[in-house]
Structures are given as structure tokens and as C-alpha cells.
């Protein structure tokens, strides 16, 4: 058992340190000297360093050759080279620091994404900036100069690295949902990811030909917003990014403490016409964040998150599960995975409370299982409730990892296929003769152009969407690496359907706004500086008196 009765992690940590080895040339298969440890101890970093890069800085006495490293826990450190040594050695590590002083937060740089992997990125003037990767998007740290007090290099806050004409990127292990997030009539995208963020991709095109702005973090207010949608908005100091984080109680131990695995679904939970968010996290907890409108003309913000309860106890299940919400017989039904790894239904009672509706069942009366493994292998399921075959009954559309087994512990899909990969599964709903949840037919692998729709191994995401230039619903798939792929239902099939039936087109199915793209002027007016990824600027270094003169010429400019 990895944790004891007090909740302490008892698995012995693995430590590592840095070694140097000299080779005559890079093409040589043999080192000219044996490896030599250059850090003071053999247990320098818990769980090792996630990345390392050479760092050359210019100082009064010349160039200093150093190393910059990232720790598993998100820290960024520098090892200064030891001057006067006959062979390369380093001084004890020191944290890289921000140029911004704070009375509350440490100035030591902590990368916002797990497993930081730094790379020195020289500027035109020769100063060394940093590009830092990890379990998510690339981030840029601008070198601002040296500290007068410590001579240590100082850096700006992290900024996202941008890509021209880029494909949509939802972060590592994205969890997708498709809905009109900001109430303008167009269908947007909202995605959670491994780092625990929730991103909003605004659709400035049409539902038939969508065009999306870069994803921006969804934010919530620290206190309840009384006047939802007020033109004055909420003071920025009261807003924080929605960020799930496992912390010390991470399922796989403290090494994954900075992961969040946000799994959101968008729904109008309280029926006020404003989009809300239901979500699970890396600890399998269930939350609801009610929408507070788009006060001040910017993107929508959320009320503080509240825990969902059933029978006066917090709803709890496996990690990394996107819950589903649908309307069945006039009632809102919430579906998740329970502690026995079965799909479980609840009826919504009020904004924070659910009533147990029992396990979802197959047409033979047996519960719908999801896994044959235990531990951290469970969960990792995306659940969608939608009438996907247009027969008037809710169906289940699931994204299941390679090791999932639906609907029974052994012999289910996709496990029974020999673990070829994660898959999109379709479970056709059966009309219910009672007031209970619907029953479902056995799962079927969804095919695209006749080939099984496999979506990765560890996990994958699927969302039902009305986006597209043909009659929907269609599918959006989030790949493990972060890319988002659209699948038109005209090319989708399963064992029951050679091609999924096409619903009858509705005259009033789409709003006028969904058919008209935003103009360039409308987009420009919408993108205020604090939300515009194209106009990021670092702080004015002339205001940072601590900086030495050598680095002060670096001010201004945006991310690469």
C-alpha cells in the first residue's frame, strides 16, 4: 500500500544527480573519460531532472558557462560553472528568479506546467532567454539582466510561445467539450488538460465554417458575483485561472503533485441561460462552477467552484473522467464513473446536490463496467450523452483508453481486441418504459471511413458537436498530444449502422449569429490586451532598479 493510515506517501523516493563525461567527438560511440559526478551529492534531485540545457551568460569578467535544469516538481535552477577548474564542475544549484518583487509569493521561478524541460534561446544581443517545454505548451522566459545583489540572472514571467497559422492545441491530454461558451450564438470549444487548466477557444467564424482564436484560460472569481453580467465587470484582482492540482495526495504519488487533469463539461446547470462548468480532477472529485456572465465585455467568468454532493456526501470516483449531462424525461441526468468502475447516473436536485439514480445498465440488466485493471489505470473515460443516431433516445458516446473494458471486466472493448489503442465507443440507447435512466445496447467501435477510430493509448477525448458544414451531430477527438480532430458523421459507422442516420434539418436549429462570422473590427474590439495572446509584453525593465545596466537594454518585445 503506497500510503499509510495517516495519508503519508511511503514509497521510497528515487534521487539522481548530474554527471559529466568528455567525448572526443559527438559521433564517437565511446567516451574518452569515465563519467564523473559534478553535483555535491548523489541525491541532488528527487525523481530526477526533467530537462537540462547549457546556459552562457556574459558578465564583467567574461562569459560564464552554466547549466539550467528543470525539476519534476516544476522548479527551474541554474548551476554556475566553477571558474578556474581544470575540468568542468558546477557550484551548488540556485533557483532562477523573477524580476518582480512580491511580499507574498516567492521570486523563485516555478514553471506553470509539469516536467519543465528548458532550452537556452539566445537573443540578437547575445543574452540568454529560455524556452521551456514540459507536459504542455512551450513557454518563453525573457532574460532581463543580472541582480545587483546576487549577480544572478533575472527573468520575466512565463509567456506562451506562438505559432503562425497553428493548429488548435488544447494542452497535453486535452478533454473536450463543445458549446456556446460566451452566449454569442456561435459554438465554441472548451478544453481541460493534464496541467489542470481549462481553456476557452472562441469561435469567430460560423458554426458551418468555424475559426477559433487561441485558447485562453477560463477564470473564476474568488467571491460570489452578485450582479452577473454587469457592464463594469469584476475587478481583475478578484479573478484567478481555473486550475485543478492534485498536490501531495496525487494518485501516483508526490511526483505528480503538479498535475491536475481537468475534465470539464459545459452545460446550463441552473437554467439561467448562462453556460456553466461541471468538472472532475486528478483526485476524482466532482465540482460545479456556475457562470457569472461576461462582465466588462471580455470572456465569461465563473462563480467560485462548489463540490457536488449526493446523500450529503461528496461525489467521488476515479480520476480523469469527463462527466456527462443530459435531459431524460424532462429531468437533468448526470453520469459519471463510480467507485466500482461502473457508469452511474444521478438526478440533479439543485445547483449543488444530486440524487442517486443507480447504475446505468445494459439491456440485459447488468451494469456497464469500464475497466479490468485497478489503481491509477481506472478512470480516463470521456462520457457523452446525446441522441447520436437520431432515434429520439439518448445514447452514450465514450472515449476509452486501450486498457478499458466496456461493459464487463473481461471481454469488453477495446481490451478484447488485443489492446490496439484507445477507442471511441457507441452504446445505443433503448427507450425506457419507466421513470428511470435509459438502458443501453452493447458497445460498438465507431469507425471512420471503415477503419476503427483509435485515439491513443493512455487516454483520449471525444465530444459530440454541431460544428460542421453538414447536418450533425459530429465528433471532435482530442489526441493525447493536444491536437483536436474533427470527424464528420457522414464518414462514421458502427456495427449497427453502415452510416449513422442523418437527423432532419431544423429551420431554427442555428441562431443567426452562428451563421455569420465576426468581422476583423469586432474581433479586435473583443481582444482586449489582457486576453490577446498577440500583444503580450514583458514588464518595463527600466522600472526594475535591481537590474544591472548590462541587461536593461532588453526591455519590450513579445514572445517569439
From TrEMBL:
Q: What is the lineage of its organism?
A: Eukaryota, Viridiplantae, Chlorophyta, Chloropicophyceae, Chloropicales
**Protein name stated in the entry:** Uncharacterized protein
Q: Which SUPFAM superfamilies match?
A: Integrin alpha N-terminal domain (SSF69318)
In which domain of life is the source organism classified? Eukaryota
